[in-house]
UniProtKB/TrEMBL annotation, chain A:
GO BP terms: translation
Species name: candidate division WWE3 bacterium CG23_combo_of_CG06-09_8_20_14_all_40_14
Name the UniProt record assigns to this protein: Glutamyl-tRNA(Gln) amidotransferase subunit A
PROSITE patterns, A to Z: AMIDASES
Enzyme class name: ligase
HAMAP family according to UniProt: GatA (MF_00120)
Automatic annotation (TrEMBL), chain B:
Key words of the record: ATP-binding, Ligase, Nucleotide-binding, Protein biosynthesis, Transferase
Keyword match ATP-binding: yes
Protein name: Aspartyl/glutamyl-tRNA(Asn/Gln) amidotransferase subunit C
Subunit structure: Heterotrimer of A, B and C subunits.
InterPro entries: Asp/Glu-ADT_sf_sub_c, GatC
Keyword Ligase: yes
One Pfam family it belongs to: GatC
Organism name: candidate division WWE3 bacterium CG23_combo_of_CG06-09_8_20_14_all_40_14
GO MF annotation, one: ATP binding
EC number: 6.3.5.-
């Protein structure tokens, strides 16, 4: 009856043409979830269909479990919050709710969003719908898997060091990391305050832009949220990329596995075919971004997780998982007297250089194109016990987080039947352009084969 | 190389209770990660000013207007121990 | 061998804004039912964020100008990280470097007291201790506090008391605080050490005294502590650098946990709040407002001394002789 890979666009059109009702749409997604999620394990909390209040235009959504949802269990993937029920909604949750999205559940993730494979969840590891022995990427593991498996047409997520783009690229879905401050962080359980970017994962670029139209905008409750005017992210989406200059940063081509390299070369040919002018560029401080990130992140984490003392909410600090403990320890060390200058301060100086790299390059090109991951989705258990190996999965994504610039991950093919993504990186507040480029690429390549 | 003592001190400062196995594991792991991030030492940042925030705005302030927020029930709903409207915890010196 | 006292004061003043420092909860917390004036931000719930109160910043700057401080053109908030049950986030949002006001002074009849800085921060919740449990009320969490720190150039209990009383009167006159000690609107801490009479260098230790709830306690604490330290020094012993609390019942200072002095607060700039910048127009507006309060038309506010200004009796609601 209803194809579970139905997009938001198709749902809305179907409602208008009265092809199906909202209850039928939701029931169809629930059928799929009941059938397959026991294997994929993307949901931590599922709301019961009977409890949902639907109107004629209701659309289903699921939230990464670090989004505060009033009255609904919110764990951030951590055992510390296994009983935590927020008394308030995140701003983004309110916005989506007011636009007709109805929450069907909360999605699994690495605990406190610390991770690149989803295996740091204190509950269970989500599987990649394209290969059940592999990870779907992290930290937004549940979000990516749920959309890929057809459980929900959109899932919210967060990208602090690549946690939307990496899982999107591993699951053949579209993920946006908006400009830092473009979407309110209020109510999202903080990881790294200065890089947390609030986004979402969908099946198509159009759907993704449609949702950003709802979530973007200034929030008086978030002092870091941007007052820059939002755009209509759909308005230029059909414009194509003829005439645009796309930079290929050479530092992002190092250390790629053979299959990823071939995939990317093929993508470049597509960009040329679509009329873009390709230019080689350099972001010379790329190598240092990952080092700076893994000082700044633990430092801010160590402070942001200090509120978890088991008194006003949650359980006590023994319940932190290993990765959380590791990052808190590292961060405490980096900020400690005698170490602050050499670590935290030094990392923030390196950050200035990364930002300058991007600024310089965007004077010459409209958009950058680069791979998202140096390798294919790892097998479950392959990297989780080697922190540095896990951190290195973020090498190509963290520079955009340090600089705050937006990036969109779009399906770019398969290596041994495993999905590979391409990311388009733009200057601050250029999401409209990213969607234009991403949509053109997507429509030309159509790397969307439904996976059972 | 971080000594067991230093790792223990960091854990105490961060209020992270560690069992002896974890302490040993971190004693091995943390120095490796610190070496990994110390790759930054190759970078000359002498005349570079730090960027603590990537946003360019300043003076993001709030008007002095009061509003009602959580009810007391909401404020207390996630606390493990409450008493007469207060949130209760064991004696202060109990904090490990 | 005669010794002289070297005293520095830290005065915390609760500002009388309508709402709290970083959230819109009511700031009128006196005798309200516990945990009835809270929100996700001042309760430290995950995901909550702070947004600074414009009026609180202004009040601190007015106080600073009246005390002849320089207002920093650029300022920012910082996190002070430590654990305590009444500190919900596990850090306090305060100021480390670039405080709002720096380098001020106030005349007393014993000479001028130099003011190092006045900065803005949030208050913690309230803890009540019984034998085996602690009860926490977070109404006070997030209340805006001005912290005034003097240089250690106060030389006697009498001068300390006079200084504090003047600060209190000024805060009330300017309308920045009710400054009622009984309600905890104004809290005193002092640092005291001794050096040989005539020596210029600062002593190599200082003892911090907390829990001083009235001017009488301040006088008594200084007297007791001066005697205690003098006795130790005369006996050739060293005075331990530590924090002590004033015990009114025992009429003495009592050692508290030494650990407090060794805490590494790991200050770093608050990433959730963009920096502050004040232009000349804004500072000019503040000076204008101040001159109206002090009835002092002369632009040179540094000459304004509290007694010399033409303050009518109605404006002073409490007498300088008030022991509280």
């Amino acid at each position: 009856m209803l194809n579970n890979f139905i997009t938001l666009k198709q749902i809305l059109e179907g409602y208008k043409k009265k092809e199906f009702t909202s209850r039928e749409v939701f029931a169809s997604f629930y059928d799929k979830i009941n059938e397959r999620d026991p294997i994929i394990k993307s949901f931590i909390t599922k709301l019961s269909l009977e409890d949902l209040t639907l109107n004629d235009f209701s659309m289903p959504i699921a939230y990464k479990d670090n989004f505060s949802t009033k009255g609904i269990l919110t764990t951030a993937g951590s055992g510390i919050l296994k009983d935590y029920i927020p008394p308030f909604n995140a701003t983004v949750v309110e916005k989506l709710r007011n636009s007709g999205f109805v929450c069907i559940g909360k999605l699994n993730c690495d605990a406190f969003a610390h991770g690149t494979t989803g295996e740091n969840s204190d509950f269970f590891a989500t599987k990649n719908p394209y290969s059940l022995e592999r990870t779907p990427g992290g930290s937004s593991s549940g979000s990516a898997a749920a959309v890929a498996a057809g459980f929900v047409p959109v899932a919210t997520a967060t990208d602090t060091g690549g946690s939307i783009r990496l899982p999107a690229s591993f699951t053949n879905t579209v993920g946006i990391k908006p400009t830092y401050g473009r979407v309110s962080r209020y109510g999202i359980i903080a990881m790294t305050s200065s890089t947390d970017s609030i986004g979402h994962i969908t099946k198509t670029v159009w759907d993704n832009a449609f949702v950003l139209n709802i979530t973007a905008g200034h929030d008086p409750k978030d002092a870091t949220s941007s007052c820059d005017k939002t755009a209509d992210y759909l308005s230029d989406i059909e414009m194509g990329m003829a005439g645009l200059t796309i930079g290929i940063p050479k530092e992002y081509l190092k250390g790629l596995s053979g299959g990823i390299k071939d995939c990317f070369n093929s993508s470049i040919k597509t960009l040329e075919k679509l009329g873009a002018k390709l230019v080689g560029v350099s972001l010379p401080h790329t190598e240092y971004a990952i080092n700076a990130y893994y000082i700044i992140t633990p430092s801010e984490i160590s402070s942001n997780l200090a509120r978890f003392d088991g008194i006003r909410f949650g359980t006590t600090r023994e319940s932190f998982g290993s990765e959380a403990k590791r990052r808190i320890m590292l961060g405490t060390y980096s900020l400690a007297a005698g170490y602050y200058d050499d670590y935290y301060l030094k990392a923030q100086k390196a950050r200035t250089l990364v930002i300058k790299d991007f600024k310089r390059v965007f004077e010459k090109v409209d958009v950058l194109a680069a791979p998202v991951s140096p390798g294919i989705p790892p097998k479950l258990g392959e990297v989780v016990n080697d922190p540095i190996k896990m951190y290195m999965m973020d090498t190509l994504t963290v520079p955009a987080n340090l600089a705050g610039v937006p990036a969109l991950s779009v399906p770019a093919g398969f290596v041994n039947k495993l999905p590979v993504g391409i990311q388009f990186i733009g200057k601050n507040f250029s999401e409209k352009l990213l969607y234009r480029v991403g949509h053109a690429f997507e429509q030309e390549t159509k790397y969307r084969s439904p996976k059972r | 190389m971080l000594t067991k003592n230093e790792v223990g001190k960091i854990a105490e400062l961060a209020k992270i209770p560690l069992g002896s196995e974890e302490l040993s594991a971190f004693r091995l792991q943390l120095p490796k990660i610190i070496t990994f991030v110390e790759n930054l030492n190759k970078l000359d940042t002498k005349d570079i000013s730090p960027t603590f925030q990537v946003i360019s705005k300043k003076n993001e302030l709030r008007e002095d207007i009061s509003a009602e927020n959580l009810t007391r029930a909401q404020a207390l709903q996630n606390a493990k121990l409450v008493k007469d409207g207060y949130i209760k915890t064991k004696g202060v010196l109990d904090a490990k | 061998m005669l010794y002289e006292s070297v005293i520095g004061l830290e005065i915390h003043i609760q500002l009388n804004t309508k709402s709290k420092m970083f959230c819109s909860c009511s700031n009128d917390i006196w005798k309200k039912p516990p945990n009835s004036l809270v929100c996700p931000t001042c309760l430290g719930l995950p995901g909550a964020l702070p947004v600074p109160n414009k009026e609180a910043i202004k009040k601190v700057q007015l106080l600073g100008l009246a005390l002849n401080c320089t207002l920093n053109k650029n300022s920012h908030f910082a996190r002070k990280n430590y654990f305590y049950p009444d500190l919900p986030k596990g850090y306090q949002i305060t100021q480390f470097s670039d405080a709002l006001c720096e380098k001020g002074r106030l005349e007393t009849s014993f000479g001028e007291v130099a003011i190092r800085r006045i900065h803005l921060e949030e208050d913690t919740g309230k803890s009540m201790y019984t034998k085996d449990e602690t009860l926490l009320d977070f109404n006070k969490s997030g209340v805006p506090l001005a912290e005034l720190v003097t240089e250690p150039n106060i030389t006697s209990a009498a001068q300390a008391v006079e200084f504090c009383k003047k600060i209190r009167e000024l805060a009330r006159l300017l309308g920045v605080s009710n400054a009622d000690m009984e309600k905890g609107n104004i809290r005193l801490e002092l640092n005291i050490s001794l050096r040989k009479e005539g020596e210029k260098a600062l002593p190599n230790y200082r003892v911090e005294i907390k829990n001083i709830n009235s001017f009488k306690f301040l006088k008594n604490a200084v007297a007791y502590e001066t005697k205690r330290q003098e006795e130790l020094l005369k006996a050739g012993k060293e005075v331990l650098q530590e924090t002590r609390g004033w015990s009114e019942s025992g009429k003495k200072t009592v050692s508290q946990r030494k650990k407090e002095m060794e805490n590494d607060y790991r200050y770093f700039p608050e990433p959730d709040i963009p920096p502050l910048e004040f232009d000349e127009k804004y500072v000019g507006m503040l000076k204008q407002e101040l001159s109206q309060v002090l009835f002092y038309k002369d632009k040179n506010i540094s000459e304004a001394s509290f007694e010399k200004s033409k303050i009518t009796k109605e404006k002073i609601t409490y007498s300088m002789n008030d022991e509280n």
